[in-house]
Amino acid sequence: MLVLGIETTCDETAAAIVRRHEDGRGEIVANIILSQSAEHAAYGGVVPEIAARAHVEVLDLTIAEAMVKAGTSFEALDGVAAAAGPGLIGGIIVGLTMAKAIALVVEKPLVAVNHLEAHALTARLTDAVAFPYCLFLVSGGHTQIVAVLDVGRYVRLGTTLDDAIGEAFDKTAKLLGLGYPGGPEVEREAARGEATRFALPRPMLGRDEPDFSLSGLKTALRLEAEKIAPLSDQDVADLCAAFQRAVVDVVADRVLTGLRAFRRRFGAPTALVVAGGVAVNQAIRRALETVAGMADTSLVAPPAELCTDNGAMIAWAGAERIFRGMTDTLAASPRARWPLEETLAAEKAPA
Ligand code: KG4
Ligand code: ZN
């Protein structure tokens, strides 16, 4: 089964062709990503209007490039998938409308994919992970611990009460005068910093519910930075190291709590799976490996380029759904807000 996937929910314009083999194995045939970060960098974050216009300008070429790379034609596809949300509505409209147009012209099934579901299912494409598994979804917009029971069956165990972890990395970078996206910059600075120089809080540590809160940490960091301003290069590195260490401690505690909650409700998970842009962070990955071991399971972390937003994960989620007969009609709507738990309800809605 050959599926085209289109991703336009944030600041990457991406298109990919993925094959699902009969035994359920996945194979990436082409995976093209055009990042717009340079266009947003001057603003220190994604500007929705700029993003939507950039998607319009390059999406057709991105798809064409993926088709050429895959050496295939639209007629050879078994379906067209696009991320229909959640995310920035302007970009979503561009990607979903393009997918509908292609599906209509070549008479192929359409799948309106939930972007979070695509992150959630990526580990099945890369590592053929079996259900049920515990997902730690950690990106610029989301920080969630989810029980992934089947395609379309997700139970959220924990979430952030305020900022997402990636967002906290981005805000820290902005505060310290580093570039955007902030995660990689903060991680690089942290590597040459002294984490113990500043005593930052570890919000929510030890709580029963596997939830997160990042805003107190962000404020504490700002106060420390203000106290010692103007900042030297070493100050910046030390603040980054202290921030990252605090996040790592919180992640370890919260995810371990999430894994225990998973086991109580659903039995042993097949794996702890990590997804989303923050999963690229090496310190966080190491902490998750330790935590997985403590909970008698193992960590599955897809390669970095499949953790951040991409078209392959959308195509794969489309393939998983088409295989189960879970396709959508051309009436599928773009959705700025679309909780993961509602993906099955969307599929069951009358056509
Ligand atoms: O999944 P993603 O590409 O986009 C969505 O938010 O959906 O994630 C982007 C986020 C940004 O907040 C970025 O700063 C963060 O992932 N990120 C990192 C690292 N690389 C990217 N955070 C911490 N450490 C990193 N190395
Ligand atoms: Zn994402």
Structure overview:
The protein has 351 residues and is α/β, with parallel strands linked by helices. It has 2 domains: 2-123 and 306-342, ATPase, nucleotide binding domain (Nucleotidyltransferase, domain 5, 2-Layer Sandwich), CATH 3.30.420.40; 129-304, 2-Layer Sandwich (Nucleotidyltransferase, domain 5). It is built from 12 helices and 10 strands. The strands form 2 sheets. The protein has a 5-stranded mixed sheet, sandwiched between helices. Strands 8-7-6-9-10 form a 5-stranded mixed sheet, sandwiched between helices. The model is unreliable at 346-351 (pLDDT under 50). The structure holds 5'-O-[(R)-(carboxyoxy)(hydroxy)phosphoryl]adenosine (KG4) and zinc ion. Residues 10, 139-141, 166-167, 169-170, 181-184, 187, 276-278, 280-281, 308-309 line the site of 5'-O-[(R)-(carboxyoxy)(hydroxy)phosphoryl]adenosine (KG4).
Quick rundown:
By secondary structure, this protein is of the alpha/beta class.
* Secondary structure: helix percent: 40-55%
Task: Write out the strand line-up for the largest beta sheet, numbering strands in chain order.
Answer: 3-2-1-4-5
The total number of structural domains is 2
Mean pLDDT level: 95
CATH-defined architecture of the largest domain = 2-Layer Sandwich
Radius of gyration: 20 Å
CATH class designation of the largest domain: Alpha Beta
Strand content: 15-25%
The hetero molecules present are: 5'-O-[(R)-(carboxyoxy)(hydroxy)phosphoryl]adenosine, zinc ion
Distance between the termini: 24 Å
List the uncertain runs: 346-351
Series of H and E elements: EEEHHEHEHEEEHHHHEHEHHH
Q: Output the structural class.
A: alpha/beta
| Large-scale geometry | globular
CATH topology of the largest domain: Nucleotidyltransferase, domain 5
CATH 4th-level superfamily of the largest domain: ATPase, nucleotide binding domain
In this structure, how is the largest beta sheet organized?
5 strands, mixed
| DSSP summary: helix tally | 12
Task: Give me the count of strands.
Answer: 10
